[in-house]
Amino acid sequence: MNGVQPWQRHKRGTRLRAAGMAGLLWMVLVLASCGKPVPSNPPSPDITPSPVPIMPTPEGRALEPDFDIAAADRIVLERGGRYARLEDATTLADMAGALAGVRLGEKALSTGQDTIVCRFIRGEQQWSVGLEGDCLIVNGACYNTLGAEGFIRAVGQAWEQYGLFDPAGDTIATRILPPPGYQRPQGDGYAQFIRNQPLMPDGSPVLLYDNTPKGNQNAHVAVLQLDVGDIDLQQCADAALRLRCEYLYATGQYEKISYHLTNGDVFPYIKYRQGYRLKVEGNKTSLVKTADFDGSYATFRKYLTMLFAYAGTLSVSLESAPIEPEQMQVGDVFVKGGSPGHLVMVMDLCRDSQGHTKFLLGQSYMPAQQMHILKNPASDSPWYDADSLSYPFHTPQWTFLEPCLMRMP
To answer: What value does the CA radius of gyration of the chain take, rounded to a whole number of Å?
Structure first.
């Protein structure tokens, strides 16, 4: 080891009784050092040398996991309660390849740093290795390594970039952390309402309106607690309407809860609470007074049921205002009106000191299902980059072919 001086090879308790012997032995050590520098004032042999980590033997031994790490379909990094998910094929291949070349040396002293646990997962199988400083922890033992520099570097970079999830967080704002150098702007009341939406426990599946699991469970990173109802109505555009209307109702802005139906007619909540009900005749609708005034939340939810039945992506797209990416706010939507059509919603955003913006997306889908925070198919981070936004714009289950960022009324 380059940092070990010859005087450190003395065994504890050695004493030289004659000065001549000591001088002779010191000359021998200088010659044995092969030109390495030695202290001008060698320490007394009575001093116990400091502990020095045992470095690996030149050949080491191969790291042989009982799992084909090259076949992993995802990697999860865990540290201090937080975690990162890595699913990009290139990232998986690079990290698996870097680890495959590692050789273990002797057991090493712990560095005392927080351990990053790296779990290679394929289906129900998994294999874990810990990383503590520049040592690997395998089966509970910490080893010095040979050829692990690439793996150590890859893990560190991945953790800094993607270690964004805190499973203890129970809202969007506390579960999904901003990337390094970014902060959430305070935003208006609607932004706070959305980013503080309660989430289901970490790892929860997306459920359909009939309480069965959605077929595709690989598109989301978190699931909102917002109920769906027990009928197939609260789909993509409806989920965005639901959040907007819930906020306006909670803040007493009842007159703003007024949206167009697909046939172009306006359906205002203020009339519904006064007892006017929607009458549908073919493609025509009208409001007819059939009930007494009722401002209860239960009646508000009945209004939403009717709105979801006769509004959709087409009506939302027609009554929303186009905006540019630099104008983006929490609550804005990407919407393609029509049948088929789709809508995803900006659920949160963050900015760095230079004004660069990243954002999270959420959706419901068909059939009606729990609203969920989407993965970013272009990155292992769920944050999308507003500065590089271009079309076609890919989300996990829909590709928007042309500009369609809008602000709902």
So the answer is: 31
Q: CB of 302 within 8 A of CB of 277?
A: no
Q: In angstroms, rounded to a whole number, what is the distance separating the alpha carbons of residues 263 and 182?
A: 43
Structure-model confidence comparison of residues 14 and 253, the more confident one: 253
The DSSP output letter for 345 is E
Whether the CB-CB separation of 371 and 289 falls below 8 Å is answered with: no
Task: Answer for the pair 238, 311: CB distance below 8 angstroms, yes or no.
Answer: yes
Contact 399, 392 (CB under 8 A): yes
Cα 245 from Cα 256, distance rounded (Å):
8
Residue among 401, 382, 404, 391 nearest 179 (CA): 382
Q: Find tokens 């077929």 and name the residue.
A: 215
Q: Are 258 and 267 in contact (CB under 8 A)?
A: yes
- Give the Cα separation of 47 and 43 in Å (integer): 7
Report how far residue 1's alpha carbon sits from residue 324's, in angstroms, rounded to the nearest whole number. 59
* Angle subtended at Cα 403 by Cα 402 and Cα 408, rounded to the nearest 5 degrees: 130
Helices of type H across 144-235? 149-162, 172-175, 189-195
Instruction: Name the residue with tokens 């004004």.
Output: 355
Encode pLDDT of 99-111 as tens digits.
988 999 888 876 6
pLDDT in tens, 183-233: 999 999 999 999 999 999 999 999 999 999 999 999 999 999 999 999 999
pLDDT-based confidence at 60, cuts 50/70/90? confident
- pTM here is 0.82
- Closest by Cα among 111, 121, 39 to 76: 121
Rounded to whole angstroms, the Cα distance separating 165 from 365 reads: 24
Residue 350 structure tokens? 């963050």
Q: What are the start-end ranges of the H helices in 231-381? A: 236-250, 269-272, 297-310, 313-319
Give the count of beta carbons closer than 10 Å to the beta carbon of residue 319.
16
